[in-house]
């Protein structure tokens, strides 16, 4: 009986380690799958400011783009985090001196709700309300929102993956890449950083 009781915690520990390893392996595979992959954009994406004024695509001639895709599953306001995106855009504009543009593609179930959220949060950066979910259909993004934000180079190839709003290590990694500043580097591999938040 005593042997059986002692083996239960050991079994649980081994099972937890196995789950952790499989989680890390899954994230590692995801990172490897997307690194260097070219993101394909719809031919006619329409960007608006707060759902009113149509504007041109904000990518311009930037060296890097941060693309974030948000679907309509779960709490839209929780996923968007627009005030935090405003802070991040300002930080990147300051640190990267215009080298980075931001592409926001939202697949709304309720376009009016998204209009309201952008107005409520004073979010004046252009966004694409991708009602037909064309961007996702062209690229088949992972279902986990952690893997629906990408740092792209000027050829739209994925340089890094992860949401800098939800993970400060990912933000530091993105900053290091776009500025070439070794002082902003995270000491953890990106697979570990992403595994910790999935």
UniProtKB/TrEMBL annotation:
Residues 1-20 form the signal peptide. Gene3D superfamilies: Glutaredoxin (3.40.30.10). Keywords: Signal. InterPro entries: Thioredoxin-like_sf. This is TlpA family protein disulfide reductase. It comes from Bacteroides caecicola.
């Amino acid at each position: 009986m005593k042997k059986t009781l002692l083996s239960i915690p050991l079994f649980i520990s081994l099972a937890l380690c196995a789950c952790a390893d499989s989680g890390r392996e899954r994230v590692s595979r995801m990172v490897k799958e997307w690194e260097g992959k070219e993101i394909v954009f719809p031919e006619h994406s329409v960007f608006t400011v707060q759902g009113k004024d149509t504007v041109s695509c904000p990518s311009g001639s930037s060296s890097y783009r941060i693309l974030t895709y948000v679907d309509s599953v779960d709490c839209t306001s929780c996923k968007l985090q627009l005030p935090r995106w405003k802070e991040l855009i300002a930080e990147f504009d300051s640190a990267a001196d215009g080298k980075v543009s931001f592409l926001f593609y939202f697949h709304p179930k309720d376009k009016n709700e998204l209009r309201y959220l952008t107005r409520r949060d004073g979010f004046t950066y252009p966004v694409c309300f991708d009602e037909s979910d064309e961007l996702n259909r062209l690229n088949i993004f992972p279902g986990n929102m952690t893997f629906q934000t990408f740092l792209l180079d000027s050829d739209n190839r994925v340089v890094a993956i992860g949401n800098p709003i939800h993970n400060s290590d990912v933000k530091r990694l993105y900053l290091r890449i776009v500025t070439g500043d070794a002082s902003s580097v995270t000491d953890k591999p990106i697979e570990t950083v992403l595994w910790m938040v999935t």
